[in-house]
Amino acid sequence: MARSLAMSVVIVIAGALLTLAIDVGAATIYGTIYRNNQPVQNTELRFDCWNGPKPVTDNRGNYRLSVNHMGRCTLWIGTASGVVIFYQDPTRYDFEIDGQQLRRR
To answer: Structural domains in the chain?
Structure first.
């Protein structure tokens, strides 16, 4: 009986850890990129924390990226860059390109 109880505890803990790992693994950012108050269309975005396929803005300057990373990351559009933070909940980042900086709107 003690062995059965111990095995049950191990299974519950393992299940909880797997659930936590799944929750931590998915982080999403999205938003719109502008230059001179106009959407930046069909432009590739780069992230220093993501080596997968590079997202591209659509015809309205919108983008979206879901990664298995939590925390700070630098977003690059051409030579302009800005900081984004991947949280467990989806986070909106709208930017205006200002020289070599991305300024939040």
So the answer is: 26-104 (2.60.40.1120)
Q: What is the pLDDT of residues 24-73, one digit of tens each?
A: 568 999 999 999 999 999 999 999 998 999 999 999 999 999 999 899 99
Q: At residue 51, what are phi and psi to the nearest 5 degrees?
A: -105, 5
In which residue are the tokens 């396929």 written? Answer: 53
Which bin fits 63, alpha (ψ -120 to 50), beta or left (φ > 0)? beta
10 Å CB burial of residue 39 (0-12, 13-18, 19+) is: middle
The whole-chain average pLDDT of the chain stands at 85
Query: Can you say whether the dihedral through the CA atoms of 90, 49, 46, 93 is positive or negative?
Result: positive
